[in-house]
Amino acid sequence: MAAADDLAFDPWDPAFVSDPYPAYAELRDRGRVTYYAPTDQWLVPRHADVSALLRDRRLGRTYQHRFTHEDFGRTAPPPEHEPFHTLNDHGMLDLEPPDHTRIRRLVSKAFTPRTVEQLKPYVSRLAGELVDGLVTKGGGDLLTDVAEPLPVAVIAEMLGIPESDRAPLRPWSADICGMYELSPSEDTAARAVRASNEFSSYLRELIAARRKDPGDDLVSGMIAAHDEADDRLTEQELISTAVLLLNAGHEATVNATVNGWWALFRNPAQLAALRADHSLIPSAVEELMRYDTPLQLFERWVLDEIEIDGTTIPRGAEIAMLFGSANHDPEVFASPERLDLTRADNPHISFSAGIHYCIGAPLARIELAASMRALLERAPTLTLATDPDRKPNFVIRGLEGLSVEVG
């Protein structure tokens, strides 16, 4: 185990947030696990360990299926945060078997590969319309003009949320996701609680309407889903799952889009190769997800004592798996700091792994490919107008905007 007193790893330092990858290299060189006192976490930076731990059932996204807060040596969240935790704790992402298994099985009945495949024409058409709007203006903010509206509209369409109701979805999501950063402030928590209450109230009304008049949408499908044991989703599980699908269904895609194009603008030879050969789009999507990972860190609780490289990590500890570091591990990726859109062997873990592997990964890939194709075909002269500002967040990595011009 390495000490962390002099680490360059500092999730509150703007310079680190701007470019965490050199600090990750230092962490990997120091060893397989490092204790980080400021967050009381064990940092795991190497690909092999992160990949294995994501599948290790001695770790969990929650501990409450086995322990009380007191038994686990942890303090219960403040009562005023309860609306956020009720919403968050009933979604697949923060559950463990058997509840996770049951909910994922039921949601999968409505979220099938066929359903996703049928969305392709809609996604492609919408991406084209958004890019056409950008071209007509001669440029704009790639974030607000293309990257955000595409996945938000797609997941809202899947869920059956009417267009007239979609304006608050992105702000609600942003406020809720603020709680996934390290040591969120009380102001962040207050915004998350308010968004959790408002979003839950809206979905409760939508679910009631769909119970009376089902449609051909994901909310109706989840209401109807059941299995041989006649298990069904509770109303809270329906609400939490819908919020999770919206949040996870667009946050990563939005940030992967702008992170990716910012990387392409900084690597003009790779951008020129992509413009010359659109068959590179599938491998480009995977490489850009690896190169500047939209979700940098994913946490697990230690449910049963484990050992990493001779270091015993006790029950009750928290492990921070560094996805961004794992995706730059030279033991797995040749020249990891180099953007290579032709990279063939690319086992990045940007969509996680194990039982919590992203259920929406196929849809995210469709959306990323569709927006990239539309921009390459309809805005072939797209250029960067000004260098972007990086969002101050570390865990969810993105840009404040990406100003572009179309000549």
C-alpha-based Rg, rounded:
21 Å
How many strands?
10
CATH topology name: Cytochrome p450
Shape descriptor reads: globular
Unreliable stretches (pLDDT < 50, length at least 5) are none
Q: For the largest beta sheet, what order do the strands appear in spatially?
A: 1-2-8-5-3
Give an overview of the whole structure.
- By secondary structure, this protein is of the alpha+beta class.
- It has helices spanning 14-18, 21-30, 47-53, 82-89, 99-110, 113-118, 120-137, 142-147, 149-159, 169-177, 186-212, 218-224, 235-266, 268-276, 281-291, 323-326, 361-378; strands at residues 34-36, 41-44, 59-60, 139-141, 297-302, 306-308, 311-313, 318-322, 382-384, 403-406.
- It has a five-stranded mixed sheet, with helices on both faces. Strands 4-10-9 form a three-stranded antiparallel sheet.
- A hairpin with a 2-residue loop joins strand 6 (306-308) and strand 7.
Brief account:
By secondary structure, the chain is of the alpha+beta class. The chain contains 17 helices and 10 strands.
Please give a handful of descriptors for the protein shown.
407 residues; alpha+beta; Cytochrome p450; five-stranded mixed sheet; three-stranded antiparallel sheet; globular
